[in-house]
Amino acid sequence: MAKELIKIDLTAILERRLGRRAKWVPRFLLRALERLVHQEELNRLLAAIYPAEGSEFSRRLMEELEVSVSVEGLDRLPEGERFEFVSNHPLGGLDGIALVGVLGARYGDRNLRVLVNDMLMHVTPLASVFLPVNKYGSQGREAARAISEAFASPRQIVMFPAGLVSRRHPDGTIRDLEWQKACVVKALESGRRIVPVYFHGLNTPRFYRIAYWRKRLGIKVNIEQALLPGELCRARGSAFRIIFGAPIDVAPLRAAGDTPAAIAASLRREVYKLAD
Fold first, then answer.
1. Alpha-carbon torsion (95, 32, 6, 127), positive or negative
2. Which of 16, 174, 219, 262 is deepest in the core (most CB within 10 A)?
3. What pTM was computed for the model?
C-alpha cells in the first residue's frame, strides 16, 4: 500500500495546536506565515520527491534543489565499526538532510539514526532515520530509552551537539554555540569513537540579522527558527562541502581527568580545524 503524500498545512497545524482558538488567528496573518515558511514551494518539492524516504529522499531533494555536496574524508573511517558522528549545525535543516544522504548511502538507512528535535518527526519521509530528543514527561522517558537503545545497537549515530543552528558571534564569525556534553557522555557509555564532521555552509544574512536583533531586544522566543524552511528553499543552486575527520577515542581523555564538558569543547574546536 502506497504511503500518503504529506503536505504542509499551517491551518491544520494551528487547529491541532490551538483548538477552537485557531479561528481567532486573522486570515492575513495565516497567509503571511504560509509565505514565511514557503509552504507552497515546500509542498511542490514534497510532491516531486514522493514517495521517496530516508537517504533516497535526501538525495532526491538535493537534485530538486540543484544543490551539490562534495564529500571528503570518508576514507578515514574503517569498515565494521560503529561511530558517533558529531557535526556543526550551520543550516538547521539541509545539513542534517545532506548527512542522511551521504551516510545512508554508505551504511544503509536501517543502520543510521540522527538525533533531532522532536518537532522534526513530522517530516515523515525522514522519520525512519530520525530519533527524537524530547526532555519532558513520559515522552521524554520514551525518547531517552530509544536513544539508549540506539547507542547500544550497531547503528551509526549522528548528533548536532550545539542543539541550535550556528549564530554570528561578536568577532563576526558564524559558528556553533557551546556544545553540550551529552555527545561525550553517550560515546563513553557506548564505547564508541567520535567522528568530527565539518559542514561548510551558511544561511542567508537575513537569518543571522534577525537572530542578532531578537537576542539584542531580549526576545526569548526563537523567532528565527520559523525562517529555516525558507532558508532551505533559498539554498537552491548552492554548493556545500562535508569533511569527515579521523575517529577520536575520548575514553583516554576522560581517564586523564578531562570533564565531558571540556572534551565537548575540544571536539568543537577539532571540527572547525577541519575547515582550515
1. positive
2. 174
3. 0.90
Torsion angle of alpha carbons 88, 94, 98, 103, nearest 10°? 60
State the cell numbers at 156: 551509526
| pLDDT band (50, 70, 90) for residue 1 | very low
List beta partners, residue 199: 242
C-alpha distances out from residue 80 to 77, 83, 147, 181, 182, Å: 9, 10, 21, 26, 24
In degrees, rounded to 5, the angle at the alpha carbon of residue 196 between the alpha carbons of residues 120 and 174 is 70
pLDDT in tens, 183-237: 999 999 999 999 999 999 999 999 999 999 998 889 888 888 889 989 999 999 9
Report the alpha-carbon distance of residue 213 to residue 258 in Å, rounded: 36
State how far the Cα of 224 lies from the Cα of 247, in Å rounded to an integer: 34
DSSP character string of 127-195: TTTEEEE--SHHHHHHHHHHHHHHHHSS-EEEE-TT-S--EE-TTS-EE--PPPTHHHHHHHHHTPEEE
